[in-house]
Design goal:
Elements (H helix, E strand, L loop, with lengths): L10 H11 L4 E5 L5 H14 L4 E5 L8 H5 L7 E5 L16 H19 L6 E5 L1 H6 L5 H10 L5 E5 L5 H6 L2 E4 L20
Parallel strand pairs: 1-5, 1-6, 2-3, 2-4, 4-5
Amino acid sequence: MVGTARPAQGEQGRAAARRLRRKGLVMIWTGNGKGKTTAALGLALRAAGHKMHVLFLQFIKGRWKTGERQSLPLLAPYVEHVVMGRGFTIPGLRDERIPMEDHAAAARAAFTFAQQAVHSGRYDVVILDEIMATIKAGFVTAAEVVELARSKPPMLHLILTGRHAPPELIEIADLVSEVQPVKHPFQAGIPAQRGIEF
């Protein structure tokens, strides 16, 4: 049986078809398990390998001497790491010497910075690490983050991490991964390990 041959597509046609399939994604890593920031760091590493420009903006980590603070600058000029949080805000981890007003002001400044970065045209990927904790603390609203996701440039990838992702964000996201704890060394009394948890 003789089939009908499709007309050969030129290089321009193939490039146009690839562009039509590409889309900037909204991705969420949420849940109570460990590994949300780690997943986002892996994505930043992968994107840098493709010479994509990445902003990794941390809302919570504060002055912690994390491994990413040391390693992400090594990925310049493709990855820019910005820490604007003042530290944890939950009881037991919060530094009581830092007033909640300072945390709130830092979160608002970080979100304004995020809005400008998303619309700047400088980045292919913007990662808002622990934005969910910022929403949970009441420093930024879910509606504001939804609006940011909806208004982002079409080809920009926006990654949002943290526990307790609000339903309205989950609804508009293209990808949502929920990290659930099965077993954790904390349960056996093993403290956070350098290079693993921070």
